[in-house]
Amino acid sequence: MGERASVRLRTTGFAVLVMAVALIIGSFALLFLMRSSLRAGIETTAEQRASALATQIETYGLPAPSEADEDELAWQILDAAGTVVRSSEPLTDSHITVTEDAGPYTVVVFASLDEVDDSTEALVTPLLLGVPVMLLLVGGVTWLVVTRALAPVERIRREVESITGERLDRRVPEPPSRDEIHRLAQTMNRMLARLEDSRERQQQFVADASHELRSPLSSIRQAAEVAQSHPGALPEGELAEAVLEESGRMQRLVEQMLLLTRTGTAARRRQDVDLDDLALAEARRMRRAGLTVDTSGVGAGRVRGDRAAMAQVVRNLADNAARHAAGAVAITVRSTDEFAELVVEDDGGGIPAEQRERVFERFVRLDEARARDDGGSGLGLAIVKEIVSAHAGTVTVTGSPLGGACLRVRFPLMGTGADMS
Ligand SMILES: Nc1ncnc2c1ncn2[C@@H]1O[C@H](COP(=O)(O)OP(=O)(O)OP(=O)(O)O)[C@@H](O)[C@H]1O
Ligand SMILES: [Mg+2]
Q1: What is the phi-psi region of residue 83: left when phi exceeds 0, alpha when psi lies from -120 to 50, beta otherwise?
Q2: Cα(first)–Cα(last) distance of the chain, in Å?
Q3: Which of 220, 291, 301, 363 lies at a CB distance of 3.0 to 4.6 Å from 333, suitable for a disulfide?
Q4: Residue-wise over 190-206: b if at least 16 C-beta within 10 A, else e?
């Protein structure tokens, strides 16, 4: 929860505060309105009494002194000099006064405010008790409602807590309501699905890698066993040859696997890379191996990226072309406003249309027997794909006019600096 109070506490506190302010203002307003309306009533009565007295004085003259007592309103009659000439019982409590002229005399009526004070008192006690009770009620209800609303979150949390690496197939409960909590649960579940998926792929990779490493290892072991149990049975140097060949295959495999795990970080080094330079260097290497390489289509093609990784892309494509070509390979580099493109073609057997997606998967070889002889591990194109996508590019296979496969790598020129993870 951290430094701040829990959502539940804050919501409840806020609700109680708002309610308290509203109730206090409401109570004061109620008291004020009630008092002023009672006062107005009393004032009217006093005024009526004063004018009745004045009329009486003007019509019949001053009342007899004894007449005063019957009235619940106290009054005085003053002469012009301000001397009290007649009066009722004197009033002691708080009161309001109303005056009225009656010829030479002035009538003053005193109205008691006792009734107003009594009514106020009668209201204050229930308010003093009622307001806290209301606040308690509001606080309690808010607390319960928020607790209920948060209950699914707690259920999700508990489920996630219990999902370990071993049990990634589990999912959190998705509440039926179509709200933020529902969406949170959905997002959690999608995340769990991705975790499960990547874990499966990782396990598959480890399984494939182990499988791949097992066959050169057992070849080495077999040769060594034969050499040990039948000394002289193997022709001179055959053991060393077998060990060299198989361990070379293993080394290549291990290097490629390392490369695969590293492509993500490699892509973060950014420099200007000239695809044409890489292509021409690769072509020279292939020519030394006796292949005919057509580089007439190599134009400028500058992209931003990791030079070593890009060189690996060209190398893997060239290796494949060299391996499968009947005799001729063509490399093309060109760039437009939108992308830079590298194309490697050969005149070999090509890749059947239905396999053109699959060849980019790890450890996929189309011609098992031949690939084994050649020492291919099936990782070359997977590495190409990984590096190219890390540079926001695409790689596709089509058929080549030369007769074999055509592998086309494209890097968007605006997007190569974009984020990749
Ligand atoms: N130019 C090509 N012509 C025909 N088939 C190809 C070509 N390039 C790739 N392939 C097919 O695609 C498969 C996968 O290629 P990839 O480069 O991934 O693996 P590999 O070449 O067998 O092994 P590695 O590259 O790890 O040594 C190859 O085994 C091959 O069957
Ligand atoms: Mg290859």
Answers
A1: beta
A2: 31
A3: 301
A4: eebeeebeeeeeeeebe
Q: Is the distance from CB of 46 to CB of 74 less than 8 angstroms?
A: no
Structure tokens at 206: 């480890």
Q: Which atom of ligand 1 is nearest to the CA of 379?
A: 26
Beta pairing, strands 292-298 & 328-335 = parallel
Residue for token pair 């990791």:
306
Burial class (CB in 10 A: 0-12, 13-18, 19+), 381: buried
Token pair listed for 89: 């019982």
List, in order, residues 6 or more apart from 391 with CB less than 8 Å away: 267, 303, 305, 306, 309, 310, 411, 416, 420
Domains of the chain listed by start with CATH number: 7-133 (no CATH), 165-266 (1.10.287.130), 268-421 (3.30.565.10)
How far is residue 415's CA from residue 91's CA, in Å, rounded to a whole number? Answer: 96
Per-residue pLDDT band at 418 (split at 50, 70, 90): very low
* Mean per-residue pLDDT of the chain: 87
Instruction: Render pLDDT for 342-389 as a digit per residue (tens, 0 to 9).
Output: 999 999 999 999 999 999 998 888 875 555 456 678 889 998 998 899
Q: Whose CA is nearest to atom 8 of ligand 1?
A: 320
Nearest residue CA, atom 12 of ligand 1? 359
pLDDT at 415: 47
Residue 75 contacts residue 91 (beta carbons within 8 Å): no
Q: Which of 69, 114, 80 is nearest to 96 (CA)?
A: 114
User: What is the model's pTM?
Assistant: 0.60
pLDDT value of residue 283: 96
